[in-house]
Amino acid sequence: MKSRMCRGVVVAGLVLTSMVANAATEWSWVLNSAPTGTDLPLPVSVMGYSAANNTTNLIATSGTGLPDMTWYSGGYGICSTSPGDPTCSSPNHALDNNAAYESIALGFGKAVTLDTMKIGWSSTDSDMSVLAYTGSGAPALASSTYGGLLSSGWSLVGQYANVVAGANTSLNTTISSSYWLIAAYNSVFQNEGWTTGNDYVKLYAVAGNTANPPPPGQVSEPAALLLMGTALFGIAGLRRRRQSEN
């Protein structure tokens, strides 16, 4: 009985420590402004990517002339001038899958879990794909094709149909990663049978949470008090047991 009680105290302590270590801080980020919340996942980066097809064309990054990622009133859009619309007229300056497959990569300074995404504008259709990097090291998007992402460390978080502009779309995931890729729907990740070539969105914001473990060897004060109370409860139980046995 004594050994069982001791094990109970130890297990309770481990559970409480785990609860504190896995406490999460919620935050939100409109992509062209500073994130709001506490313990923000900084530094952050936003980069646009584009490829003419999924298998033979390497993904190109913004800053090299293709694609040109721009913040509009409804969020980030991408103009892929070749292939695509050389004039970048609406809706082809949105994040889309017409002529070129386009995506936006978000880089965080620590592992985060995205809870929601929000688009500020859509046209015709608004199906989207979301991936997270679960491989080792940092991803090299510009050295890959969209068809090769799932075999090079990226994991499909989900495919999302008819995303509503101005509303938070839940991603329904527990994946934690420093790198996330948000794209106009791409069937190469998982073919849902949806129409491609007509999805146009502008990515406005994301929200998520960041795990905040205490420093090594430390437990926050509330948790320490709870652990102490649990230990004292266990000791008192042992004493009562001894007295009843005498």
Characterization of the model:
It is built from 2 helices and 13 strands; from the N terminus they run αβββββββββββββα. The chain is α+β, with helices and mostly antiparallel strands. It folds into 2 domains: 1-22 and 214-246; 24-211, Jelly Rolls. The protein has helices at 2-21, 221-245, and strands spanning 24-30, 36-37, 44-51, 60-61, 68-72, 75-79, 95-96, 101-124, 128-133, 154-160, 169-170, 177-184, 199-211.
What would the principal axes of the Cα set say about the shape? globular
Which CATH C-level class of the largest domain is it?
Answer: Mainly Beta
Q: Given the structure, what is the number of helices?
A: 2
What can be said about the biggest beta sheet? 11 strands, antiparallel
Strand content is: 35-45%
What is the number of domains?
A: 2
End-to-end distance: 15 Å
Q: Tell me the Rg in angstroms.
A: 24 Å
As a percent range, the share of helical residues equals 10-25%
CATH topology of the largest domain: Jelly Rolls
Count of DSSP strands: 13
Poorly predicted regions are 2-21, 217-236
Element order: H for helix, E for strand: HEEEEEEEEEEEEEH
Q: CATH architecture of the largest domain, please?
A: Sandwich
Output mean pLDDT: 80
Give me the secondary-structure category. Answer: alpha+beta
